[in-house]
Each structure stands twice: as structure tokens, then as C-alpha cells.
Write a structure and sequence with these properties.
two-stranded antiparallel sheet; alpha+beta; globular
């Protein structure tokens, strides 16, 4: 089996960073009123800046595929051209279309290049890691010599007020004080747009640092837990998910079916504990402890969970010392499938990494509770 290295990393964040006070200038006001939950959510998640592929008139500046193409183009040059790439693996939870696939749309958005194998794992936050794993395994097994993997999101259009307006009006007909449910308003203040890309090759950089991929592990807990984060449907009173195709079309707007929703109680009860359960399995399988890695890069949706992750790990003898943590959530926002890429990109280009250091990556996905861990070594 070949060894696989991340040799270049790049990002594309659209526009200027949006500060907390300016969010509704881009997303709009539901029923022309400021959100009642915004300050509570922001106080807990500690996010101070995020990026939207929107202008202040609510018009898109970039599609998801276009942001990916920008990040990919930034990888090129210095001996690597688009014609050289064998595989393009793109992960997102917010593709521009149902059909064609996201990978095909990204390939079409790239200026130049040649025929390529394009794949697009579906899902939420783990879609980016699954794209990375496909690229990694393709090189490891010797089928190809290089690949690009991308993690991205274009969620801002899901979060705009016009997606909730009809539901808000229906609720107002019933109760003058009614507001859109917290499970829908909650994520409006959590999510961000952007894309980041990795160039993977079967040899490390001749000059400068590379990140060798030691292993990538994924696991789903969907057989145990009901749907937690979702779009394109509703949950019934028993927790069963009903997809949008089983609703009459006039209900789609009345219930904001295409808004991203979060079952906050289910999230709070399970997201950290199940992630730690899988971490212990991975530690046993790969025979390592917290003393064996130097950096911990956790994708967390909110800084609210930071202490919880630490406490639960420590209680199970898997303590992660604070000095190993690297998080950029407050300054970038939660970019879902792109978040772990953006953390690696920032650390890779920070000048802080040293040869032989190890990075443990953690990506939880609340959609139906799945998790990814990966170990990288600086060479």
C-alpha cells in the first residue's frame, strides 16, 4: 500500500467577514422583527465572524461549486496543473442541485483541466471527511498518484428570512405572539459559507511540510438514534422523519420544509457522549493515548461543547490537554463539511507545525449521529 500525503491546502471564504450585528442585514428579518433567539445562541456559540456568499440585498455572489473551484484553483501551480489530477472528491451538505451531483458541478465550474473521476459523498459535516477518505484510499491502493478533496458549504440561502416568512404568517394567524420554532431559528446563527481543498499525492513535498495520512475512521450511530439535524422534511410526534416528497407542495412553504432544523434536546443529550464512545474504540484499535498526538482539531458547532468534550473525555481516561487544542470556529463560523479543512488549512499555514508532530482530527455529525476521526503526521 502506498503512503498518502496532503501536500497543499487552500481555502476560499466569500466576501468580507460578517460581524454579529450585521447578520440580519444579509439574512433578513422574519416578519420584519429581530430574532428573539439570536443573542442567546451567539452568547453560547462564541462565534464573532462568519462568511456568506451573499450581498446585502440577499443575492448570491457565488454558488457552492464556484467556491470549491476557487479553492481548487488556488492549489495549482509550481509543477501541479489541473490536467495532472486523477480524482476530484467533493463533500458538502448543501449542493447547488439534487441532480447533477455536487462533484460534477464542481468539475464543471473549474476553468481548464481534463476528464476526471468525480465523486460527491452526501451527508452533512462528515461529507468532507468521506471525500478525503475516498481520495486517500484511491492513492493508497495504487490506482492513482494524486487527488483533490474538497469540503464546502453554501448554507446562507437556507437561512434567509424569506424561507420562513410563509410559516411565520400562518403562525401569526393563530397567535399574535407566535414565532418560528427555536429548532429552525437556532441554526440561522450557527452556520457559515466557504470551501477548502487538499492536494493529496503519493510522495511528500520535496521542500516544505507535508501531512501524512496515517488512518481515517468513520462510524454511524443511526441505528440507535433518531434524526437530529435535517432539511427537506419534518419529524412527526414519534420522531419519525417524513421527507418532502410525502407532503403536498403547498405545505413545503407553510412548514419551512427546506429550512435546516436542529432537534436541540437530542443534540445536547447525545452528540458528545457518542463521539467519545467512538474515540475510545479508535484509541484501542490504533493503540494510542493523548500523549501520542500533539494537536487536537475538533470540529464543534459551538464553543458551548468545548468544555463538555474535555470533561467527557477526561472522565473516561482519555483527557485531551488544553494546550493541544486548535479551533478557529469564532473567526470563521461553522462551515459544516468544510470546517475541518479550514482548521487544517490555518494550522498548516501558521508556521507552528514541526516535523513528526501528530494531528488528531475529530468531526461529529449530528444529522443522524455519525463521527470521523483521523490521524495525520507532519513530515
Amino acid at each position: 500500500m502506498n503512503k498518502v500525503y496532503i501536500n497543499r491546502v487552500s481555502k476560499f471564504l466569500p466576501g468580507e467577514g460578517v460581524e454579529n450585528d450585521d447578520m440580519e442585514k444579509y439574512l433578513g428579518y422574519i416578519s420584519n422583527e429581530p430574532s428573539r433567539s439570536k443573542r442567546i445562541v451567539l452568547r453560547n456559540n462564541k462565534i464573532t465572524k462568519r462568511y456568506y456568499a451573499l450581498d446585502k440585498d440577499g443575492q448570491s455572489t457565488h454558488s457552492n461549486a464556484q467556491m470549491c473551484a476557487e479553492a481548487i484553483t488556488a492549489l495549482m501551480g509550481n509543477g501541479v496543473e489541473l490536467n495532472d489530477i486523477s480524482v476530484l472528491a467533493c463533500g458538502t451538505s448543501s449542493p447547488d442541485s439534487i441532480i447533477p451531483s455536487h462533484g460534477s458541478m464542481v468539475h464543471g465550474a473549474i476553468k481548464g483541466g481534463d476528464n476526471i473521476e468525480a465523486i460527491s459523498p452526501s451527508g452533512a459535516c462528515n461529507a468532507g471527511v468521506l471525500a478525503l477518505k475516498y481520495a486517500y484510499l484511491s492513492i493508497m491502493t495504487g490506482q492513482i498518484e494524486n487527488a483533490i478533496s474538497v469540503g464546502s458549504e453554501k448554507v446562507s440561502t437556507f437561512l434567509q428570512a424569506n424561507n420562513f416568512q410563509e410559516e411565520a404568517e400562518k403562525l401569526r394567524e393563530l397567535d399574535d405572539n407566535a414565532i418560528v420554532a427555536f429548532e429552525k431559528d437556532f441554526l440561522r446563527w450557527m452556520l457559515s459559507d466557504g470551501a477548502a481543498a487538499f492536494l493529496l499525492q503519493n510522495k511528500p513535498n520535496a521542500d516544505g511540510l507535508s501531512l501524512r495520512i496515517d488512518w481515517i475512521e468513520n462510524k454511524s450511530f443511526a441505528h440507535e438514534l433518531e434524526t437530529c439535524m435535517y432539511a427537506g422534511g419534518e419529524k412527526d410526534a414519534d420522531g419519525n422523519f417524513i421527507g418532502w416528497r410525502d407532503f403536498e407542495s403547498h405545505v413545503w412553504h407553510d412548514k419551512s420544509l427546506f429550512a435546516i432544523k436542529q432537534d436541540v434536546r437530542l443534540l445536547d443529550t447525545n452528540i458528545v457522549e457518542k463521539g467519545n464512545e467512538f474515540l475510545l474504540e479508535v484509541m484501542k484499535k490504533h493503540n494510542f493515548t493523548s500523549a501520542d498526538y500533539d494537536w487536537f482539531l475538533p470540529h464543534i458547532s459551538s464553543m458551548f461543547f468545548r468544555q463538555r468534550v474535555y470533561d467527557v473525555a477526561a472522565a473516561s481516561n482519555a483527557e485531551i490537554p488544553w494546550e493541544k487544542w486548535f479551533i478557529n470556529l469564532p473567526n470563521v463560523g461553522n462551515v459544516g463539511a468544510g470546517s475541518i479543512y479550514l482548521m487544517v488549512e490555518e494550522l498548516f499555514n501558521s508556521g507552528k507545525l514541526k516535523a513528526d508532530e501528530k494531528l488528531l482530527l475529530m468531526v461529529p455529525e449530528s444529522a443522524r449521529f455519525s463521527y470521523s476521526y483521523a490521524m495525520l503526521t507532519v513530515v
